[in-house]
Amino acid sequence: MTTLILNGEERQVTSEPDTPLLYVLRDELELNGAKFGCGLGQCGACTVLVDGEPVFSCVTPVLLMNGRDIRTVEGLGTVAAPGPLQAAFIEEQAAQCGYCIAGMLLRAQALLVRVPDPQDDDILAALEPQLCRCGTHMRIIRAVKRAARTLSRAAEAVR
Amino acid sequence: MSPALSRRDVLRGTGALILAFSVPHRSSALTETGASATPLRGLPGSLDSTPRLNAWIRIEADGNATIFTGKAELGQGIKTALLQIAAEELKLPLPRITLITADTARTPNEGYTAASHSVQDSGTAIRNAAAQVREILIGEAARLAGRSTDGLKAWDGVVAGPDGLSLGYGELVSAQLLNVDAQPTSILTDPKNFTVMDRPVARVDIPPKLTGGAAYVQDMRLPGMVHGRIVRPPSYGARLIDLDAAPVEAMPGVLKVVRDGAFIGVVAEKQWTAIQAMRRLAASARWNESAALPDEAQLPEALMALPAKDTTILEVGTPDAASYDVDALFSRPYLSHGSIGPSCAIAHMDGDDLTVWTHTQGVYPLRDALATLCAMPRDKVRCIHVEGAGCYGQNGADDVGADAALLARALPGRPVRVQWMREQEHAWEPFGPGMAAHVRASLGPDGSISAWQHDVWSQSHMMRPGPPGTLLAARDIANPFPPAPPVDLPMPEGGGDRNAVPLYVLPNARAVNHFLPQMPLRGSSMRSLGGYLNVFAIESTMDDLARLSGQDPVAFRLRHLRDERASAVITLAAERFGWNGRPTLSAGSGYGFAFARYKNLEAYCAIALELAIDQDTGRTVVQRAIAAVDTGQVVNPDGVRNQIEGGIVQATSWTLFEGVRFDRQRITSVDWASYPILRFAHVPRRVEVHLVERPGLPFLGAGEAAQGPMGAAIANAIRDITGTRLRALPLDAAKVRAASKVRPASMGSPLPPRSPS
């Protein structure tokens, strides 16, 4: 038995301890966000946040996740109430097939926490581990910048 | 000859996919979408093969509409475009329309979703069907009101008249009203009155994809579903000698090991168990390997040495010259589709009925292949398209459908989900074929092209189901199906020779297609087919001819064109780029330009770009790429931009990085480390797409327009910077670095003047 804090909620899982987190999320917890792409930590389709840091869930055994805070794209928002990054990706129509996008969103989320006003080079460097095959890169970059603007405006308003 | 005998005959003495055939006559070959090349009824788009209006459109009692298309969403926004078309002509708001895509039990048979044909085929059918349905509803309103149709208008789901008549579509429709065949002509909405069809409508499929919705076949979870994995052979045609299945069958959670000849699968309750079981099975399997692959380092020579069936596809004037100003061999390696999500299918054997959920491009052809493979009647097999990860041609989708079907048949009653592993997709998908093209060209005294010859060598670009032998599993089972005969796609669209006929006006020209019936590596359709290499070769040669004669590359192209729409995109791209006033750049930076009309029948695309090379590393980055595109009537401008941007970035990846690797027996590029593709560090720093508006003109496919011009524009910029013409794709860092160190005298003519010419 492993205890995860999944998108803010405590969840007990029974998968074998050597099971990669990806299969626990998809098959035991029935979440769709994290995708199987390579199983080798090369493409980033399975990226989730663990204690705020992007991690390849396809090569991370669930036994290492006990008590850790795990965030998937389901934790960023919903169709009815998309989070700022999701809203920006919809606004920019930053998807073609979309299979890589959940990983992109989480990698971008980690970047915006660290660098609220990222320049192009920051975005390129942060997203380097994530592969996209449809060639949606230009829109993904624009969407991350748009989300950064939204978030900084929101922060201004609070101040 | 019985099928069994022919199978044995074909298999005797060969263990690989390298097989020779009597090639069917070219004109009898398939088109890339599987549609008949000659119209049956003279009806618009796919109405020609499925004329009944209620096969495409049903109006419900509440006045909402359901649209049926035989095409599938491949991640390019086709659902949204078809909904826009239906909404425009039905005069019904988008949210009141539901779209059902490719399903052998429900939708028309529109062959394959391929070749940038979906908006042309299905969009045209739906547009005309919707317009005719709207007129039928108006006629019905008139009949019910006992008046003429004069002054009646359909709008917002209601037929209304000046005298207060107002009848909702739901009130007008009756069971048989739309059970009629389409007419050859329709009253289509004038483009100047469009309210949705030319607008950038947000794609309906995007929000669930960004929030963890069940958006892909990979996300489906059926009650009682179990997980299968396949053990594939180590190389083409390998035969299984020995397998120790007992320890795997004893693993907790393993339900079944399926073995049929060299086809090995395992089914388990949990996915991770299935993967571990697959690995243990693979470790215990012993194989007899017989594949003999060509020498990767000499691929173009190996291809050109194969037996070929030659077709002269262009012959005009006297193309033979005593000598040529350009005489060059261009080549591309085999390319992976490289979808980020490996192929996946779910199959369910329920009594006598087999259902397969699949991201195939052709539900009907796959259904037929699976029925033959499983020896079942066609009407007992149903294929339902569910979106997969990006589809750029025939990837493992059909194969994994067959894998799942065979496992489901062995475990009746349980839906079996099979997903390929990354290394299986990389090693076993049908690649975009390796190719060679030889171009010779001469300039006349007036600086125009006086002679032109183009020879292209390629295997088939069309090895899709129908025939069961196109499927890996059907070749591996103990009583295998014969390999499918290679299809030589005919002109005008062509296969390996796609775009081998230049659009330029050439008084003396020849083009010859050397079709290779043998297939050294497994191959099939990949975006633009032969167009990518042929445009690369033609546009590189145009650039060299312009340089040799001191002419501006843009002006040189324009003087050889008579097609006004071609000239318009070239002129627009050059203007928006600032081509004529472009400044001289510092060492390591330069410019490239290229143009093509995809298939010489579809979208026009011209690209001007600026490129920078790090001369120490050979690292190449596109600084800006400016594209101009004409796709006829645009349905969704943002959708077209998204496709062209994507084509530019994907072709940048093909051109700078990609090539399938292999030794003399096995494919060795089996992951993203051994088959690198473009990552963010190499994305173009700026991309602009400018659309030429052509309201009312026929739809032209956009998904494959940019790939050819982009590859050539990059090569032309590298030539501009280094003075060296690179002709063997990919133009990777090692080649670019080597090119940066030499400035050969042969082609080292001074750069043309950078002023308007």
From TrEMBL, chain A:
Its EC number is 1.17.2.1. It comes from Ancylobacter vacuolatus. Residues 1-76 form the 2Fe-2S ferredoxin-type domain. One of its GO terms (molecular function) is oxidoreductase activity. This is Nicotinate dehydrogenase subunit A. Keywords: 2Fe-2S, Iron, Iron-sulfur, Metal-binding, Oxidoreductase. PANTHER family: BLR6046 PROTEIN, OXIDOREDUCTASE WITH IRON-SULFUR SUBUNIT. It is an enzyme of class 1 (oxidoreductase). It holds the Pfam family Fer2.
TrEMBL record, chain B:
It holds the Pfam family MoCoBD_2. Gene3D superfamilies: Aldehyde oxidase/xanthine dehydrogenase, a/b hammerhead (3.90.1170.50), Aldehyde oxidase/xanthine dehydrogenase, molybdopterin binding domain (3.30.365.10). It comes from the Bacteria. Residues 211-291 form the Aldehyde oxidase/xanthine dehydrogenase a/b hammerhead domain. Signal peptide: none annotated. PANTHER family: ALDEHYDE DEHYDROGENASE (PTHR47495), BLL3820 PROTEIN (PTHR47495:SF1). This is CO/xanthine dehydrogenase Mo-binding subunit. It comes from Ancylobacter vacuolatus. The lineage of its organism: Bacteria, Pseudomonadati, Pseudomonadota, Alphaproteobacteria, Hyphomicrobiales.
